[in-house]
């Protein structure tokens, strides 16, 4: 990929949409953040997203050479990185071939990817992790929902259908609350940011959500929330015995979030002596543009391993 080209990253979150042009040095030249509801206003949400991207590029990226577009979504995505299979928090995305729609608007390669994979890719780069030494890396990102990604021997774990690492939708025994994914009793109902918001609205209505840990971290309900979160994360630690664990997301970065307590509880629930005794825990940088930088890193990796097809479109391994 040419050094003067840019990748357009689009991070579709539970609350906001972020879009930006990312250069070869991984710096963001131009970006914008907008409430999701202002862009996705009808049932044709993917078309609206494509039109929003087109307007951004025409209005703010004139003269830039755009080499690719990457859309990060909080959803299950197929292995071919074209279609959203299930998006509990994104109306109008289920079963939609996002790439096919975007190619109606753009000539450059387009990819759709799980947003947490892009975040973990950025964190691996920014933490200077050596993938030859850190062979198993687990990322848990607690935002509106629970985001989860795993890297093994330098490749992201995707599974047969592309839907591996859905920690949010592990069923909890003896729980049957409906989940937006269509199942019942999913972990996301009990340890996500959405769950924390419900606790705040029900039990601490006079406290702003951003101050829940500042004002109520010693309350039994909040202690129980952190304990449940630790159990969820330690389950994955016990499954993968990772070289390191990366924690991030809006909840983790809330003011006065009890990080030390969470770490203690994760180790308490991890198997002894290992991985409990030598588990390395890192924290994602608190930045709203991590997904955009991850989009550029994703394309850089694809291009380094790519094969040019006769029509000029780049074909590459799915699990990079």
Q: Notable features of this structure?
A:
Nucleotidyltransferase, domain 5; 5-stranded mixed β-sheet; about 325 residues; alpha/beta
Plain-language structure description:
It is a single chain. Residues 308-318 have low confidence and may be disordered. The chain has two domains: 5-115 and 288-314, ATPase, nucleotide binding domain (Nucleotidyltransferase, domain 5), CATH 3.30.420.40; 118-283, Nucleotidyltransferase, domain 5 (2-Layer Sandwich). Helix 4 (115-126) packs across helix 10 (290-304) and helix 8 crosses helix 9. The chain is globular. The protein is an alpha/beta fold and 320 residues long. The chain has ten helices and 15 strands. The protein has helices at residues 36-39, 45-60, 98-102, 115-126, 188-191, 193-203, 212-216, 220-240, 259-269, 290-304, and strands at residues 5-12, 16-22, 28-35, 65-73, 76-77, 83-86, 96-97, 110-114, 136-142, 146-152, 155-156, 244-248, 280-283, 307-308, 314-315. Helices cover 32% and strands 23% of the residues.
CATH topology of the largest domain: Nucleotidyltransferase, domain 5
> CATH class of the largest domain, please?
Alpha Beta
Poorly predicted regions are 308-318
The strand count comes to: 15
Number of helices: 10
CATH superfamily of the largest domain: ATPase, nucleotide binding domain
Number of domains: 2
Strand order in the sheet with the most strands: 3-2-1-4-8
Shape verdict: globular
How helix-rich are the residues, as a percent range?
25-40%
